[in-house]
Amino acid sequence: MKKQSNLSRLLGYAGRHRYLTRASWVLSAVSALIALVPYWYIWLIMREVLETAPDFGRAKHLVHNGWMAVLFAVIAVLVYIAGLMCSHLGAFRIATNLRIKTMEHIVELPLGFTESFGSGKLRKIVNESSAATETYLAHQLPDRAGAIATPCGLLVLLFVFDWRLGILSLLPVLLGFLIMMRMTGAKMQQKMKEYQDALDDMSNEAVEYVRGIPVVKTFGQTIFSFKKFKSSIERYQKWVIAYTKQLRAPMMFYTAAINGVFVFLIAGALILTRDSVTPEFLLNLIFYIIITPIISVTLTRIMFQSENAMIVDDALHRIDSVLDLSPLKEAAVPASPRDGSVTLQHVCFSYDGKKDVLKDISLSIPSGQTVAFVGPSGGGKTTLAGLISRFFDPRKGSIRIGGVDVRDIAKEELMNTVSFVFQNSRLMKASILENVRMGRPGASREEVLEALQNAQCGDILEKLPEGADTVIGTKGVYLSGGEQQRIAIARVMLKNSPILILDEATAFADPDNEARVQEAFSRLSRGRTVIMIAHRLSTVADVDQIHVIRDGSIEESGTFRELLEKQGLFSRMWKDYQTSVQWKVSGGGITT
């Protein structure tokens, strides 16, 4: 099947506005042709001046021809503006629809997609790639129509007056076009991709660096502590400098060629007028010197249009990299879980399809129990919790909630069944009331306020000027990490899901906030199945079951006391943890 062109694809997003886009091309071409008419009147003015010199009083049509030149110049500008208005309306509609479709597709993708893809890279694709299509459609395509119409009109003008001078004018055009083709060929397409890759990489690392600024400031480090960010900047710098040097020579020759038309005209005129100079030839030579700068402007437009076409092609490829990702399959006949139990059978998972980060995990969590996943960092605890929430699907094995495979549960019901509290919960720029109501959009104000009280948020509401109606992030209203966590817990309480996953949820809380958060968790956990991911081992002492995960496998399982008696990995972790919490800072330094 024939591949659809980029332009056809973009017009497919225009809807009824596609006719405005096409109209803009026609108007731009008409404007370009009308813009050549003033040169005809300039030629008439120059001819009359030469014919009546030195008795300029005999020149009767100078004023008329001058005003006609002005009139057609104004008409050309007005027609071009009308074309731009049409192109912008179509371009804005296309860019908007492209963003909407991309975001609607992202919403359908598994929740783990954003983390693996990179939020900085994803933001750049959604915003900047669609913006690239807007520039192309609003400006470049109308200009291309004008750039095609202008040479056609110029060819007529160049050969009407003196075909010899016309040929001389086209020689630098041919030379410049050959150089331009060398700069904008297949190699340029690859270079454009490398350029966008370098920008994506730097954007992604910049987002990660900004997120890590609290850590950098806490430990007094500099930007150089983020080697990946620094390396991405250096790679971009090296690429840009090397590419600039590579294009330096051809760009210099191209500029010289398209601006050297006067050299060809003057040299040709000297050869053609060795015997004598006629007034008619002088008139034509002056006219050609005036009109030929349009050639260099037209060629430069064509060159930048070729570059922007490559940018759009790359932008669409990047958007396709998101659109080509398949959402998780939905069951034809969804089933509902009977309770809050969780069962994993021989689960294996890999991010890249090669190396498994989870290896043959099997465990069972009865409904209403509280279990904990502990173990060294990078062992797979968060990944395992993400699979239960169906952020991803396992490569092998099955995950069941309430006796039903998570792949057979409707997406909306699964999201209502499992709630997730992250270690760094995000709040929207909205009122506290609306932030909490996101857990259950149909909840009443009284239900939201009750959830806030149960989440130990009373002190937060008391200190804010408008209580629960205070908008976070505006007018200097900001909350600490622990306070944000309590607001997030209120949201989960309002949602009232039977299964709760806590991913290191007290990691960034100060002692006072941690006590309140733990009290909120205590209320939230009643009657629910709770899965805790914890590094602070003191928080898992009272859970029903602990699973110690290392290198993608469950190394040992049992209650807190049973694991201590085994003298295995958990026992060693507990001893290390006790040693670390006994340290304290005194005036003389760190002591135990």
Short key terms for the protein model shown above:
592 residues, alpha/beta, six-stranded mixed β-sheet, four-stranded antiparallel β-sheet, 22 helices, 12 strands, disordered C terminus
Largest sheet: 6 strands, mixed
Parts with pLDDT < 50 across at least 5 consecutive residues: 584-592
How large is the count of helical segments? Answer: 22
**End-to-end span in angstroms?**
73 Å
Shape: elongated
Q: Which structural class matches the secondary elements? A: alpha/beta
Q: For the CA atoms, what is the radius of gyration? A: 35 Å
Helix content: 55-70%
User: Mean pLDDT score, rounded?
Assistant: 80
Estimate the strand proportion.
5-15%
How many strands in all?
12
Strand order of the largest sheet: 6-7-8-3-9-10
Subcellular location: Cell membrane
Keywords: ATP-binding, Cell membrane, Membrane, Nucleotide-binding, Transmembrane, Transmembrane helix, Transport
Main location: membrane
GO cellular component, one term: plasma membrane
Structure description:
The chain is α/β, with parallel strands linked by helices and 592 residues long. 61% of the residues lie in helices and 10% in strands. The chain is built from 22 helices and twelve strands. A six-stranded mixed sheet has the order 6-7-8-3-9-10, with helices on both faces. A hairpin with a 2-residue loop joins strand 4 and strand 5 (404-405). The protein is elongated, with a radius of gyration of 35 Å. 32% of the residues are buried.
